[in-house]
Amino acid sequence: MGLVYIEHPELGPQKTRLSSDVAASASSSTVENNDGFATNDYVVFGKPGEELTEIVKLTSTTGNTTLGHTTGPVFAHSARTPTSQIKYNQVKIYSATSETGTYSLLATIDLDIDEKETIYDDTTGDSSTWYKVKYYNETTTALSDFSSAVQATGYTEQSLYSMQSEILEDFGDPHADEIGRNRLRSYLRAGVRRLTLDLIKTYPTFRRNYTTQSLTADDEEYDYPTRFLGFYMIWVNFSGSTKANAYKIEKFESEEALDEPSLTFNEGDPRIFLRDTSYIIKPTPDTTGGTAFLWYWDYPTAMTDPVDTHGLPHGAREPLIAYTLYRLWLTRGEAQTETSDRYRQEWRDSKDEWMEFVGQTRSVHAPRQVRVTYGQDMYSG
User: Among the four residues 49, 93, 228, 380, which has the most C-beta atoms within 10 Å?
Assistant: First the structure.
């Protein structure tokens, strides 16, 4: 048996509030502004996770303030209750015996919007079962993309979803009503980049990578490698593919240095000029078939899906969470300066402790597992 915990989809884009009380089974309600709402839309009366919150299907919109709903709501709702569009009213649960196997539909169930999560009890599943879900609109038959696959053992503590959930709880917004998981993902990615930079400055052997670039006649500009952070060595062979006949780059310069009128270039002393997203090789190759040999530092793969991990040595979770909370409270302005300063200091202290730990251990520990859940931004890019 396995319990599948499914995070609810984000609300919107249209959001308003009731402008007067609505009785149970009322055929219409009055809102502050019905602009953007339409017949057959599903709307949520209330806040997800709160008692009596429910999903209602609209049958009409009238004027600027009236929503029609012939069959609902089931419960009475008071004026000022949040009223929001929701793209889906159901969820489809699929399972497979392996992560890359064929996923079969287990069930289609209504979203339990008055609970923190919708829960499905898979009585046939076990610890080796893998799950995916799709949100579903019962009226339009619209389906979301598949979620990322999650085994019944759940997300790791180092996963994007696990870190987002802890941040949301700490920030007092457990259902992401205010800030959204996409925003947290952006801050966490920024935190990974900052930690990676500090890690490389202290321990330059971390995150080293190597690749080659084929040179093309009359093409001086080439894209950086994937997740590029910085070069630490380049050799260039203008006429072949072997390093034996290549010349080492002795100097890296910014693109602005190309404006120096006295500069001259020759293949025996090649130069590299750096742009924001690419680099320039001088002299410009005059034949196709040459090779640039690139040694560089890179960032870990960016976290996109809820199951993705930060990619840094064990222990990075704590400073990443502190950094994100610091960024969140910083947006609150002067009223929360003391709180943001506290998290900034926590970020610095936990980062220093982590750097010391990395230096002592130089190892990655296997993370623990947590329950099966699905993030509400699992379909976003």
Answer: 93
